[in-house]
Amino acid sequence: MFNQTENAADSTNDQEELVGTSIAPSTQYWMVGIGLLAVRIIQGFIYWGGGSRRFIYAPDKLNPDAPHWMAYKFQTAMPGALLGLEHIISFMLQHFWLLYAGVILFSAAELIAGLFLMLGLFTRISALLSMLFSVLLMLMFGWQGATCIDEWTMAACNLAMGTTIFLCGSHVYAFDNIILKKKPHLTGSRVFNWCCGSLPLPVSPVAYKKLALGLLVFVVVFDVGTYSYYRGSVVTPYHHGPVSPTTHHISLTNGKLLSDGRVTVHAYLDAGTPEAPEHIMEAWLKTSSGETIMYWDTAMLSSLPQDSFRNDYDYNQFSVSHYGIQAVVGSAATIVF
Predict the structure, then answer these.
(1) Where is the TQO small subunit DoxD domain (predicted)?
(2) What is the pTM of this model?
């Protein structure tokens, strides 16, 4: 009993001494680095996983002839993409060489940046790339998520994680340190310190504080702002967003009644979940007063010839089915009835 009491007293005294002891800056920096190790490795694995699925484990995503070709995924993101990206995606979908090059380059960048983050190689430039990926993915896919805003959540977290790694470096168990040990003269290189994570950023404490707070403002405004835009619940009531991720919606434009009695209209499935197709089982042509002029039931829609659909894209398309006309989110076509 005496020994236990004595040990407890010694432990208390040690803790009191530790509280009053200042920690050397080098030790503090090491503690920050090892504390961020899990963040760096998982951030890297997320992007390594995205690239490796396409290049190694599920190469059909890079095969234009396969049903899982990435173009289908991009097309489903098109209706809710922000800052004009809808038009850029549409242009790429109609120009195969540009689309394919973009998919390959983006996937390769994900793969390399993710691998480098896990290894701690060119840590800061890799973290900066991961921040760019997060912003792009947020603007393209952030609106999606039928049961929860999972695309927003991933992009928001990855942006914050990438920013933290960029600022702090996460230099422990990193290849950047191996490079620095072999070439110690790089200690004074601003390029090395901005690109790698072995040493603090080569700026004054005042400049570092301004940079950190500036990035904090950007991350918070971007993440919270997109959340409010997509779902509200910040200063406005909850809503499903300007583009619903759950309820399908079809926009009809350029309707024409031809001289031979046929009707043409451009249809665009611009909302809803991409996990299930939309089925059009009935269609009406009405006057401005609501009087029905023409009517097509499910059987009539199912019997439309395939050349009745002039699809805008080669991927998700409007087509006939057993239940009338079907389409996946992002499909757009001129339909002849």
Answers:
(1) 37-186
(2) 0.87
